[in-house]
Amino acid sequence: MKYLLLNVFFVGLIVSSCSKSPVDPMVIVEPPEPVEIILDSIMEGTLHGMTVGDGAEQVYTDLQLFTKTKETTTYLSITGQFNHAITDLNERVPLYASLIFDRKPSSPAGGQIYFEGNVIKTIYNREGKKLTSWPNPSSNALRVGDSVEDIYGKLVKIHADSRFSNLFDYIGMFHKDTDKAFDPVQHLSNLWQFNFSIDEKNVIRLDLIFANGALTKIKSRHERYF
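Above: the chain's sequence. Below: its structure in token form.
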């Protein structure tokens, strides 16, 4: 195991919230600067409850158990572009915490949909403007308060409308809800990014690196703030 200690005073980074209440993505705050960064990595053994060599599903189970021990906000991103068509989302939307849709190139008309408590909590366009529904003026628009279980059916109808079909040129679904079941697509991702806070002054960012569905390396970045 290698440790590298860096004292940093001018690195602009966004800190994970220590509050359980999510922050609306349209609120932009100048990020604080960590006064110390500790880097660590392992290629064997266990770190934060996750063991190198285990398969993706077991790592996810261990991560879920670890998350339950934390009293602050945690965040898991499953990186990689695995959603190329609306049909790729079938039966998978409830396993995640947000969706992003956009044209190529990006357009303000795109949408960012955030869930909480199995319903749509907030909706924004790609410029960060808060909305009550998306897209407008579709009669099948996603609306704040809609059940997460109903999202896929609405998306199919919206996509079938030629006025909105190009809003699905880009489909992003990365923010995994760790209270929900494992998504088999996670086997395909080579990198999961997991963030959690120890307290108001300490944040841990983990890169979980996979090859052929097995965890091969864990990289840790411990950021300490004033």
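The two ends are 27 Å apart (CA to CA).
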